From TrEMBL:
Annotated protein name in UniProt: Transposase and inactivated derivatives
Domain of life: Bacteria
InterPro entries: Transpos_ISL3, Transposase_DDE, Transposase_Znf
Domain Transposase IS204/IS1001/IS1096/IS1165 zinc-finger: 37-82
PANTHER family: TRANSPOSASE FOR INSERTION SEQUENCE ELEMENT IS1557
Amino acid sequence: MSTLNYIGNLLGIKAEYIKNMRETRSEYLLYVESPVRPHRCPNCHSQTTRIKGYTNRKIQHTTANEKSILLLYRQRRYICTCGRTFNEKTEFSTHYLRTTPRLREVICQQLSEITSFKAVANHCHVSINQVLRIFREIKYSRPSNLPTVLSIDEFKGNAAGQKYQVILTDPESHKILDILPKRDTTELAKYFAQFPRYIRNNVKYITMDMSLQFRAVMKTWFPHAEIVADRFHLIRLVTFALERVRKSEQNSLCNVSRTFKTNKRILIKHFEALTDKEFNKLMDMFHYSPRLHRAYSLKQAFSRVLKFKDNANLQWALDQWLSLVASSDLPEFQSLLKTFNFWRNEIINALTLPYSNGFTEGYNNKIKALKRCSFGLQNFERFRNRILFINTEKGHATTTLHVGYRTKSVCG
Ligand SMILES: [Zn+2]
């Protein structure tokens, strides 16, 4: 195999196209030209090999050794007996003449990572506008279907002049279904109204954190779905109440406030996992503050409630726990009574069903990371497409190779 053959294979260019190669300080220059082949005239459809002339084009390929690879493509123009002239058809002479398909694949592959458009442009030695132009071709339409389990959450996206955006996911298949620009009730209603009733009726469970607004909207549009509170948020409600007690004790017991401040973490750690030293610190805190001791016991009792998996026993355990809270004389815990009463069904669902907002919350962190490295993403449509692109393409390296210029729908 000749050197040009090797280079051709390496770069994904047919060796017969490569006429020469030259290296400069910042670039590899490949002189390419396709063999003369009969072409069909777009006007009269007869075949011709008559050459009208050539145009030299500079096309950006991938990079190697931190250098750009540029194709100096000698584009041939044919002339037909009918007088019509036209360009030859090769893999280079696409509509997007300035970059090769291979470079666009590399750019798309890079865009499926959590990285900024600018970083992708730098990595591929192209301008940021070229990257944006390629990405503009990737669009995701609203899903045509909805899954059995639907998860809804909000995140701080600061896009489209709105602080919060809404994320809809399928927590079972780990797919992001859509990103909505606004979280207000009217916008959500407008969005869900686009799905026919029979599709909305397919949704059996909806997981969410305890947002009254989301619950009201989802109950209206998904009357057949069970709402499942997020387990993590539920546990956090109890942890926060304990934390409020700790803070108040830290402030009121001035002479030992340091003990309460520095051992904050011990209160959250699993009791069984405490070291001897931590256990002693915990006992010290309880010695100074019987109130904190009572609060901690409530938290421990709640962990035992979480262990019940069948509905009847769980209901009983939860009621026992709520009466403990009511008689605890801890004002920091009293708001829980109202919340637990108000969200009772959703909480029971959270503790008996295997669905949670875990995947969605995890993705919100990825979005946060993307925002951080991109210094914000002001353009909402681009922001939305990028999140959906990362979710669809990540872990699907082979499909990335085929990402050309297409409109995609996430579902169906
Ligand atoms: Zn012709």
